[in-house]
């Protein structure tokens, strides 16, 4: 259950990052409200997953999901630049997440 909570927390991190961009520096009300709301949910789920998972594992996975997800949302929804080096960087982040998940001692308290 902790891993599912962590995955959902990472997905909500992507959502709040998107709304933070839409808030234009917290100058637009509803995107700002959405940012704060999704942040709260994301942090709560991350915190809940840390009851079982080691802090380092949970935090690395959460930020990695958010980083790669935000990159993909930026490319797909916001028309941000995509090139071989940016794709390679995202692949390296995902590779690191897989290694973190498979590493001994990264799964339980």
From TrEMBL:
Membrane-crossing residue ranges in chain numbering: 27-46, 58-78, 84-103
Family, according to the entry, reads as follows:
Belongs to the drug/metabolite transporter (DMT) superfamily. Small multidrug resistance (SMR) (TC 2.A.7.1) family. Gdx/SugE subfamily.
Q: Where in the cell is it found?
A: Cell membrane
What is the protein's given name? Guanidinium exporter
Q: Which UniProt keywords apply?
A: Cell membrane, Membrane, Transmembrane, Transmembrane helix, Transport
Q: Which InterPro entries match?
A: EmrE-like, Small_drug/metabolite_transptr, Small_multidrug_res
Q: Gene3D superfamilies under this entry?
A: 1.10.3730.20
* Membrane topology, record value: Multi-pass membrane protein
Q: Which PANTHER family match?
A: GUANIDINIUM EXPORTER (PTHR30561:SF0), SMR FAMILY PROTON-DEPENDENT DRUG EFFLUX TRANSPORTER SUGE (PTHR30561)
Q: Which domain of life is it from?
A: Bacteria
């Amino acid at each position: 259950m902790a891993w599912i909570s962590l995955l959902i927390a990472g997905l909500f991190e992507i959502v709040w990052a998107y709304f933070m961009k839409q808030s234009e520096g917290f100058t637009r009300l509803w995107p700002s409200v959405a940012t704060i709301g999704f942040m709260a949910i994301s942090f709560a789920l991350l915190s809940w997953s840390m009851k079982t998972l080691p802090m380092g594992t949970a935090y690395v996975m959460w930020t990695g999901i958010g980083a790669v997800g935000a990159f993909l949302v930026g490319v797909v929804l916001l028309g941000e630049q995509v090139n071989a080096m940016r794709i390679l960087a995202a692949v390296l982040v995902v590779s690191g997440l897989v290694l973190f998940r498979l590493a001994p001692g990264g799964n339980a308290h």
